[in-house]
Structure prediction request, 362 residues.
Amino acid sequence: MTDLATLELDLINAIGAATTVAEVEAVRVAALGKTGAISGLLKGMGAMSPEERREQGPVINGLRDRVTGAIAARKAELEAAELDARLAAEHVDLTLPARPRRKGGVHPTMQVMDEMIAVFAGMGFAVAEGPDIEDDFHNFTALNFPPKHPAREMHDTFFLQPDPETGERKVLRTHTSPVQVRTMMSQQPPIRIIAPGRTFRKDSDATHTPMFHQIEGLVIGKDIHMGHLKTTLKEFVARFFELDDVDARFRPHHFPFTEPSAEMDIRCDRPKPENGGKLVLNQGDDWLEILGCGMVHPNVLRSCGIDPDQWQGFAFGMGVDRLAMLKYGVADLRPMFEADVRWLAHYGFSAFAAPNPASGLS
Ligand code: 2NL
Prediction:
């Protein structure tokens, strides 16, 4: 056998023996790569005499074409086999259940806040908002707090560092009343607003957290009176708890910013085994405190640029977190603001079930 015939036989055997595309590629490099055997032969043709080249050229070119063809054929064959093997190994089981996805939940406080806003919106109230950091005037003075009122003490209110130039000490608002003060100062009556938001007091025990949520409301008109207050708040409570009617009482109280002032209670039967361990509203001999309210004090109207001889109105305020716990059976206040996702998974609401008085609140 000639050297060329031996070379061809060796290469064809090696191509046939290759079991992976990578092995075929190694043969191709050995034969046709820069320093490959066939490449060497092709290069050598440059140094041949014309006669020799005429004779050897077709032989070497033929060798190259057959080896190239054999490599391409073997590669195609192995690629097809490799694809078949992958398709057999990497099958997808479409009957497997989808992996569970973590989804967020709406905090009960925010759910209840949205429910309350939906009820009041349905009664014609607009929503007003304001800053968490307030000044003494909007949080206390305009609300008829006397200069020595205990709420102004360091131990009840969070104060920011005094301003180095003016000495003014800003506060974290202790209620959302300042939002209503701002509304009265910037628009003339009639006014019908609620002010939902975060509030802060230096209080921390089994029933108080330093940060909590409030909704306050304010209605000012020419002839707004206690009758409007009682009807509005009873209607609110009925809609909020999805009751036909509420058995309520208005118990005299004191707030600096209202006169007269009252706390509203609704009749209830405290949780006991006969009631499945749940609080029952509208029956029993107990009373549940729901909110505080009253007729806006003339001094407050005056401080906000509203003439108390022309206008009067009522205001109210309630704690959202406590009502959320009551409505949805949250037993312990403290985990409410610990941001534990396991707690939220248990007590949270779907973000797709936004409260809507037409379709039911929750
Ligand atoms: C409560 C009691 C109340 C108000 C808040 C108010 C606001 C203005 C004027 C007059 Cl601008 N009053 N707000 C009135 C009565 C009670 O809140 O127990 N909150 C948790």
